[in-house]
Specification:
This protein is 56% helix and 11% strand. The chain is of the alpha+beta class and 930 residues long. It is globular, with a radius of gyration of 33 Å. The N terminus and C terminus are likely disordered.
Amino acid sequence: MDSVVAEIRPEADDRFETARITAAVNALAEKHAGREDQFRAAMAQLLKAELIAARATAQALLLKDRHGRRCAERLCFVQDEIIRLLYEAATKHLYPSPIPSGAERMAVVATGGYGRGLMAPESDIDLLFILPYKQTAWGEQVAEAILYCLWDMGLKVGHATRSVDESIRQARGDMTIRTAILETRFLTGDRPLYDELVERFDKEVVQGTASEFVTAKLAEREERHRRAGQSRYLVEPNVKDGKGGLRDLHTLFWIAKYVYRVRETDELLERGVFDAQEYRTFRRCADFLWSVRCNLHFFAGRAEERLSFDMQREIAVRLGYTSHPGMQDVERFMKHYFLIAKDVGDLTAILCAKLEEEHNKPAPVLSRMVARFRPGAKRRRVTGSDDFIVDNNRINLAAPDVFKHDPVNLIRIFRLAQQNDLAFHPDAMRTVTRSLKLINTELRENEEANRLFMEILTSDNAEIVLRRMNETGVLGQFIRAFGKIVSMMQFNMYHHYTVDEHLIRCIGFLQEIERGGNEEFTVASDLFRKIRPEHRPVIYVATLLHDIAKGRPEDHSIAGAKVARRLCPRLGFSAADTELVAWLIEEHLTMSTVAQSRDLSDRKTIENFAAVVQSVEQMKLLTILTTADIRGVGPGVWNGWKAQLLRTLYYETEPVLTGGFSEVNRAQRIAVAQAEFRAAFTEWPEAELNAYIGRHYPAYWLKVELPRKIRQARFIRASEQAGHKLAINVGFDEVRGVTELTILATDHPWLLSIIAGACASAGANIVDAQIYTTTDGRAVDTISISREYDRDEDEGRRATRIGQMIEDVLEGKLRLPEAVARRAVRSKARPFIVEPEVTINNQWSDRYTVIEVSGLDRPGLLYQLTTAISKLNLNIASAHVATFGERARDVFYVTDLLGAQITAPTRQAAIKSAVLHLLSSEDQAAKPAA
């Protein structure tokens, strides 16, 4: 609470000309004397114009000096002056009380965020009207006059009117009200009333309840992080409520105010909570986050707190970031943002440690289960070292100079914590961060330090320990290439986390794969048990390093392989194993690309992939790395379909590597898949089941996952029994956020184009497609479209509309070009730039020409592509449709109308030119491709 803010401001202030505006309000009162409503309306109009002008000035200054805190203070000052003017107008002109009674007193107080004296451009205003006793007619009229005028100005106002007694009673029972009163700031009115509230709040509410308040605020923080997304490295962070955001800094200050009874942040220095460097960090974090938040509000024109992709580039430009080789301006800005978020996390840990020390709270351990069997908070030496002690179940330093006398301790502390399942004492982490200069070339080359690091990487809880090593800065100093990607974001919709967080998460998933038992990773877990034991460290290091060269001008796979060749000998790898790590990094995208965008039933695809992987052992390692990498990208990216594609690719390629392509082997795998289906699906008579199995080609049995096969069997049978020529089944994949349409129709050369066009005309964006035909001329296509509605019922109705449209087109009732044209609207500019690419290749198949298309995804793109390809007199034999965030990657296996490959260079060039034109022309998004 700030009880020392003076009510009287200097009359002349460039932020708000109070004297001039007061004179204007008085003139309006005189002009409209006796006409209260007209006076209020004129005053609201005047003050709204002044507020708009003051905000425009604040924004101009923000763009010039980029100082967010100064902007927030300026906006708060303007708001203060407006409320003072309104109070004066209400008590002087509207409801004057020449001889006020004891009850006709009021203090107008700022609470919540506004009470802190900082205000974002579009933030709410929180006001508390304090009365001496119960509400009076005069108090009600004055409060209403102020509020109605603020509302007429278009402001969002939260308000409460309470007596001092009522405020104290409610603060005792409600933590939200308690926090609001903690941050009150006197604005105008009766000062003694406010002072009484402050004094009684301190004595009757705060005293003796610090522990209760701290527990509640930290629990609130956990819940807020859970809602906003737990990681502070999510690439579209919430500046206010996200992990490492402004609300975390506010929580720190609330706790400090409550526990240490401080009014200003600089008092935290005097109390020894933060040292000078940490206090500077606190100020720097707040200044940066306020700059981002003020710019975000001004740019959005609303109280926007999420730093979404379409905002990030504009905010980066406003804050003066520029592009460097390999890193866009927006990526440099977001890297800075995530470094700040990390600092906020560190400050939170420091304050919590200080509180814990004083209130002796129980501390966490790496594994909470072990905590139950631990003795109480005793200080003892850590097993395996005299340099560290166990302090309340956390590792701490036995002496302040343990790192100076042996720098290897900077790595050893993390290994000992991991071995003994100890959490990290914040004091120890503080000292680690301050000792980073001890990590020099000598330590990086130290044999024991590198051995300890490899033990950390390949032991239980590696993800947790590596994250702490990263947060303290040790990981980035010890492996300098890792330091370059710390807090680096990739400006795309595919990756959910920063590069360093993605790599650390991948290690966590790799350990899950190795442990086994998770059905998501059946194939990878099975392969992990079969790799050679000496290759276990190889897969761990390759996983940690696979994206280490992101943000460089060179292709990150090739540059990453170079990093591995330099680093691995230091970590104790032989020349052969170093080369294997480098190969895995160089090829880490290959298996995913082939599985998702090639025809796996085409022998040439398999032979080409076998030529890349060279041996079964290398393919096992690459399959494990690919699984961990896709799973680590973010929620919803890994799914059963991708798992099945990787499985199919692995088992199709294995016989080629073990002695030539074997049709017998393939036939066996098809038989196994069919037997698996028979065992799981026992609803039909055997004759019907045999006939159904015979309807599907081998590719179907090898590439479709078992639960989907069962669902489709039921769907096909029900549709045919009902006599439907065309049937659509709707399913919902909540994890991926897509709606799945399974379409059963008579096969037709233009069927995919018709489906894509129907989706486009309904405004549905296709994110992937699985397309199969049966031996009796039917097509079974599964199309995944982005969800538009939250409720499944609404989404189901939308899917039904799409189905009706497909049926109408097939029956000639509807012409697609017109339907698509009616729907087409010019979409707003996307924040992403994806360079369009078209590759035409005859080496990936002996029978077909393969057209690979990559570009910025947009609604209707697949329809435009399939229509354009068909109009070029090409037959589409199969299509492999995938999206990676904002990037669409579609691959078409085509022939000419006679069934031959496209070999003429001039014809290939014409196809490439037509498709490139479609991809690169912005106007195409708003036109039908017919």
